Amino acid sequence: MQQSTSLLPLPMYAGALLLVGLIMMRVSRWHVGLCLLAGLLIGAGYATGRAHIRLEARVLDALDRTTVTWQGTVTGLPERADGGVRFVFKPDATTDGAGSIGPLALSWYSDDGFDESMTRVRPGARFSLTIRLRQASSLFNPGGFDHAGWYLAKGIGGLGYVKNGVLIATSGPSVDATRDRLRTWIEGEISPPVAGPLLAMALGDQSRISDTQWDTFRVTGTAHLVAISGLHVGIVAGLVAACVGAIWRRVPWLVCRIPARHTALCCAVVAALAYAALAGFGIPVVRAVIMLSVAAIALIGGRQSAPFRVLLLAMVAVLVFDPWAVLSAGFWLSFSAVAALMLVLSGRLARQPRWRQFLLAQAAISWMSLPIVLGVFGAPSLISPLANALAIPVVSIVLVPVLLLAVVSGSSSLLSLAAWVLEHLMTALSAMAGWSIELSWTSPPPWLVMITCAALVVSLLPRGTPTRRVAALCVLPLMLWRPEGPSTGAVWATVIDVGQGLSVLVRTASHSLLYDTGRAYYRGGDAGRSVVLPALSKAGVHQLDMLVLSHDDNDHVGGAESVMSGVRVQQVVGGVGVELKDRTVDPCVAGVSWRWDGVAFDWLYPDHGPAAAADNDRSCVLRIRASGHALLLTGDITRDGEARLISGTDLSDVWAVVAPHHGSKSSSSPAFVNAVNAEHVIFSAGYKNPYHHPARVVVERWEAHGTRSWNTATVGAVTAALGQGGPHIEGRVTNGRRYWHRH
Question: 223, 180, 196: which is closest to 422 by C-alpha?
Fold first, then answer.
């Protein structure tokens, strides 16, 4: 259901369920199959009903990009960084215009820096805020992150930034207020580099972890250690159960009335719930608590249920709580890890030493997680088993217990001890990150991941299981899989949906070129890291033969440094004024040509004449030709640049053109449109961007000439293919839209 493009009406599920019920009353021999079908209908109907409720709680189209003044309450832990604060704000249902809108993810910045009003943004505080609202939206790219789906799963109704606000009432006692005080205490006691991971493990607040630390965790495969999940909940529950059980067994009259195991399990669940509250009831933590509770109920009830039956029951309980959990990699990783442990540590007749059980468990978890890691992240970490073999015992036996004791007792000495342990652990992980070799693997399709997971389950079964060894070989197709690419003489050009900016990936049979890299964001980060690199990875591109930076505008070159740090770049070519740190930029000069795999590339502009006065008119213009058709990349040239371009160049073979300057009124002159005579024009623009690109008059000018227009803001990434079989063009939205995306 979560993969559907639209939601079916609830009466359809009710009618189908009624029909299945009537059939079950008549045909008993199909009882099992019909029960499964009825269960699927109930689950799909339940998830659909929850989805309708979430969609109705989103910011309406009429409120998108409008300014409102609403009263409400701050929830969760605010994040203070970059001279501002980001927080979740729940509008009052009685406020005019708010209605049933869900919580809003807001940012509050000031040009004058962090002011007094922002310091009062605390959990539970009530404000009257003037907010510029916007709907949550996604960029549509192969391998791209789905922001709209992520916000929907978290129950966020919309986004916005605060223009001004007035405090109505300060916060009172609450769980989040306690978490905020603990965060202030930890930050006051521990230096920032170490405080970030400590806050993540104690309170679930990952906002203080630096990019360098995240890179270390990613390369070593230890990011799960700082994201409160089943491991941390299991540590807390296990320690509490062991302590309570040991004490309970030493009091005979207590044991005679209530079994020690039952008491230990109940206390473990209570401790897990307390830890979940301390972590802010994040979805991964709640999943772990539900799994623990289901297992505890099964054990206390005295039912000899099969372990996998308990695991499936826990999965159903998690999906009842959060139907969108299936969209999270953590959901599949956590359940696959538990399944792997059950497969290798239960049902064996021979008893093994503890150290061997630990190594076997680590190997089984890594083996079972491999398809999911490849499917979601692309490149696994070869150093991950060794790093986890060191980090998991340190975190589970020493760090987490000491840290939680420090939080509960308020002991600065214990907190300093936890910081000391973490500091040395981070030193070891950083060293291991330097040893790691990241392989150039590409994310395989979901169907191949599912087949491989099923085969790996068979490979972990006990010795003597038929086809056990053969099943282990089924991982080879997954590791050897490569995405489809153009053949010799063909070229594929994908205009990546980077929002307001430009980035075009051009591929031939054995070469790759990237034309521009998108923009750098105002408050940190850039499209190169967040959008372009995932698109390159999804396409199987791990090396660029040429990186073209058309001209020195942020929305074209802002992501260059991130791209060059993520993939190998053989040559950088740029327009006049483009400069990079520690890298030579070769100029693009009209008349220079080359061929890759039977595809012709020509620089058409700028020429050797006097440099244009405007930076936009210094853009590199590239023509790509294959099988008698051409694609034209124009950068941001204006009418003056267009006039100079068409004055001495025959563009009659252009089949598709990326519109100059995102479709601005200053470009796409009537003379240029007539000279190009393209069948397709592609506008790379942001959704509801403040520049109103592409301009309506420009779109109408192209369409009046018989040219079909494509806009990345509405159709996502656009791929134009030239070569044998004729030219072809399509937008990403045709196969990437889900029911929560804008239409």
Answer: 196
Sheet holding 718-722, edge to edge: 586-587, 572-574, 546-549, 512-515, 504-507, 491-495, 718-722, 728-731
Q: Is 630 helix (H, G, I), strand (E, B) or coil?
A: strand
Report pLDDT for 162: 93
Give the per-residue SS3 of 252-263.
HHHHHHCCHHHH
Tokens of 427: 């030193």
Among 154, 156, 61, smallest CA distance to 101 is for 156
Torsion of CA 604, 607, 611, 615, to 10 degrees: 10
What is the residue-wise DSSP string for 344-369?
HHSS-SS---HHHHHHHHHHHHHHHH
Q: Is 643 in contact with 671 (CB distance < 8 Å)?
A: yes
Does residue 137 contact residue 164 with C-beta atoms inside 8 Å? no
Cβ–Cβ under 8 Å, residues 245 and 261: yes
DSSP 580: B
The full DSSP string for 370-428 is HHHHHHHHSS--TTHHHHHHHHHHIIIIIIHHHHHHHHHHT-HHHHHHHHHHHHHHHHH
| Contact criterion met (CB below 8 Å) for 642 and 573 | no
At 84, phi and psi to the nearest 5?
Answer: -155, -165
Q: Which of 468, 513, 472 minimizes the C-alpha distance to 492? A: 513
Q: Looking up tokens 């992501």, which residue turns up?
A: 559
Rounded Cα gap, residues 350 and 357, in angstroms: 11
3-state secondary structure at position 304? coil
Beta-carbon count within 10 A of 212 CB: 11
Q: Which two tokens stand for residue 37?
A: 């079908």
Listed residue (473, 430, 472, 478) closest to 450, CA to CA: 478
- In Å, what is the CA distance from 584 to each residue of 199, 549, 570, 574? 42, 12, 11, 10
- Three-class SS state of 274: helix
pLDDT at 113: 58
Percent share of the chain, pLDDT over 70:
93
Tens digit of each residue's pLDDT (9 = 90 or more) over 146-178: 899 999 988 999 999 999 888 998 877 888 888
Taking phi over 0 as left and psi of -120 to 50 as alpha, with beta for the rest, 159 belongs to: beta
Tell me which DSSP letter residue 695 carries.
P
CA pair distance 291, 407, nearest whole angstrom: 25
> CA Rg, the chain, in Å?
29
- Cβ atoms < 10 Å from Cβ of 15: 12
Which residues in the chain come in under a pLDDT of 50?
A: none
Measured CA to CA, the distance from residue 658 to residue 501 in angstroms comes to 12
C-alpha span between 609 and 530 (Å, rounded): 38
Instruction: Give the Cα separation of 283 and 517 in Å (integer).
Output: 34
Please state, in angstroms and rounded to a whole number, the distance separating the CA atoms of residues 636 and 69.
38
- pLDDT one-digit tens code per residue, 53-81: 899 899 888 888 999 999 999 998 898 87
pLDDT at residue 305, as a whole number: 62
> How far is the C-alpha of 562 from the C-alpha of 493, rounded, in Å?
21
C-alpha neighbours within 13 Å on the C-beta side of residue 684: 32
> How much is the pLDDT for 107?
92
Collect all residues with Cβ–Cβ distance below 8 Å to 394 and sequence separation of at least 6: 421, 425
